[in-house]
Amino acid sequence: MPAQPGWSARLAGEPVGRHGAWSRGAGRGTAALALAAAMCLTRQAAAQDLSCKPGDVEVRQLNFTGNHAFSDGTLSLLIVTTPSNFWSRHRLPFFGTRHCLDRTEFPRDVVRLRFYYRQRGYSAVKVDTTVASKGAGAVAITFRIDEGEPVRLKALTISGLSVIRDSAGLVAGLPVRVGRPFDKFAMREAADTLERRLHNLGYPRAQILRSYEVDTVSRAATLEFSVSPGPLSRIGTLDIVVTPREGRPQEISDRNIRSIIGVKEGDIYNERRLVNAQRSLYQTEAYQRVEISLDPDTMGTLADSTATVRVRLTENYMHSTDLGVGWGTLDCFRASGAFTNRDFLNGARRLEMTARTSKIGVGRPLDARILQNGLCKTAGPRTDDLYAKYANYYLGATLRQPVFLGLRTVPTITLFSERRSEFKAYLSQTPIGGIASIARQRNPALPMTFAYELSLGRTEAQPALLCAVFNRCAPDEQNQLKQTKRLAVASWAVSHSTANNTLNPEKGAVVRVELRHASSVILSDRDLQFNKGLADASWYIGTPSGVLAFRVRMGRVLGAGKAAAGSQQFIPPQERLFAGGASSVRGFRQNELGPIVYQARSFRPEALDGTPIDPTGLATGDTVYLRMDQTQKNFILRNVPAGGNALVVGSAEARLRSPFYPSVVQWALFVDVGQVWNPGSSQLSFQALRWTPGAGVRVFSPLGAIRVDIGYNRYPLEAGSVYANAPGEIGQAALLCVGPGNTIPSVVTKDATGTVLYSQSYTKCDGRYQPTKPSQFFRRLTLNFSIGQAF
């Protein structure tokens, strides 16, 4: 891989007065010097023993005053002195960590801060300290900073660009600006940036010389970059050397390797393309080691216009098998297996065959009574989740081509069959489906995926949900929705990540946007049409005590066509938006934030004014009003999450290092906020948002972070409609609206045995029923158990 640019730095102090310095730019191999310049001696901080011993003084507070150019957080990372954490300062030693004053490093911290400021252009900076008592054996440390007037860059000159075809783009957006403080870090970064850009334009032998002058009287500086680009170079030779596994011949031919690299002899040298080629080779997973670099022995003189690129590869196993097992509160036991062939039909094509199943122990045909009464008691069919009785599964085969027609795209084709349920909401069954996708790798920092999915399947949702949300209450209408239909979805997704760790990020950000479209134009059934958009952003800030993590998630669904019989738009339940649960608003159980539909165990006939009526005295043709029987214990059979067409969720979480086993245990304090709603029937307001604070613990394992969170929820479930199953079918009757205060008339009919039956028109059911919120503290707590960070 081509060497990456680094920063260079001068460690010696700058002489006072007017001066200059010439050095080779781009800082190859000077990253260590840059770190020393940036942090001075702060890399010693990790090795300092700040634990408290008898006679030591605890640092209760650490303050900075007078600093305007740099934040307290930035300056605190430059020094060794560290305050005790929040828990220790508030007399909770079990969670806290005490830090005491290191009398040797404390005066050095002053030097570190001065050095940092002077390197950033504040040569007149003054740093002093104040130590104040905070009780017996404790102090508050204050660093008092007088930044002074900075030396500002008065003039910037870049010479030697006359032969560059895109000189304007070469100098655009450099980190140095006229009028800003003369920052030596930014100066070296600008030199590195210029050299990297020249490498991407075909000048691998480019040199950047920098010169600056500082006038300490007028506090002004001038800076000059002298560019020596060398000749415009082309790739002369691709020198490919492959090391196969011991005892095996080379599996993937040089011809296929060249195809994946996408660079050939005669192309203008471009360092970015070589980095992308290295990434493409790694993504095949066919190689344990990939190295692409310029051959130093063939660089020649500055007049040489060709460059030899060395490609050194070490092959990996071409076949692998992965097996996994797990357990979850909603899925009981789950298992997965995958077989991968990394050179299918030659050409480094990747074939992956995957099988997954969940609800093992509770779902047929993998149910076991002993588990339903034990570990899987909360996931079994005895709960109010109608779809827990079926085991979920996924069978799929994915073929991935490393390149397509020489373009920097990765095409993938997947065939699959699956059955998938969402807790208490729906069951989606797809006997056969296929996905064709293309991942664009043109910009590695902003990967895009275009996909087209076509499947034949059906979705079963609880009748009360279909009636309340989609106005499909009659059996024939609901059966029509349950028929196997064709769903076609075109999607576009783009993501960007600067997080330093995928599983447990400590700094950076992750942003993902997805758009989905289904309509008859792309071959979807006319009943299944919608437009959907999702945006998810998370960012992470490292602190001395741990990590501050934030997340915002928003979504919107719009119908794109008419439903069956042209009556109303129908959006598949699996495309509606849900919130609540371990990775959402954690004070609510899975999917229970937002609209809810209720199903009653029993009901009774009443007069319009609410007077109870004896059903044995009713005659055919009588009109009554049906309301749920609230005299019965547990009169609500189940609540059905209805989801919504709009969603907003936000989370803030402090992930704190544990005072014991800090590399394994992490504590967390969080607050989640969000709501799900249907814009056509309700509007989002600040009062409608649901805020749920909580705390949790993470234990890191080879499987990921085993996470236990407890959220506090002071809210009742949302108000909603109440339905009950009709005792028998009359005409189109399947469900009856039985909410409190129901004013929909029901007509009485008796069958041959004299059984009283009811029929009801399908006017929208009143959604005024709302359960009372729990009065006891512990009943307001929601326990979430999962693997992996919440976001």
Q: What does this protein look like?
A:
There is one protein chain. The strands form 6 sheets. A 16-stranded antiparallel beta sheet has the order 11-12-13-14-15-16-17-18-19-20-21-26-27-28-29-34. Strands 1-6-7-5 form a 4-stranded mixed beta sheet, covered by helices on one side. A 4-stranded mixed beta sheet has the order 25-22-30-31, with helices on one face. It is globular and about 105 Å long. With 791 residues, it is mainly β. It has 11 helices and 34 strands. β12 and β13 (350-360) form a beta hairpin.
Short characterization:
Helices cover 12% and strands 39% of the residues.
From the structure above, extract its key features.
16-stranded antiparallel β-sheet; 791 residues; mainly beta; 34 strands; disordered N terminus
Output the number of helix runs.
11
Q: Kindly state the number of beta strands.
A: 34
Helix/sheet category: mainly beta
Strand content: 35-45%
From the alpha carbons, calculate the radius of gyration and give it in angstroms: 33 Å
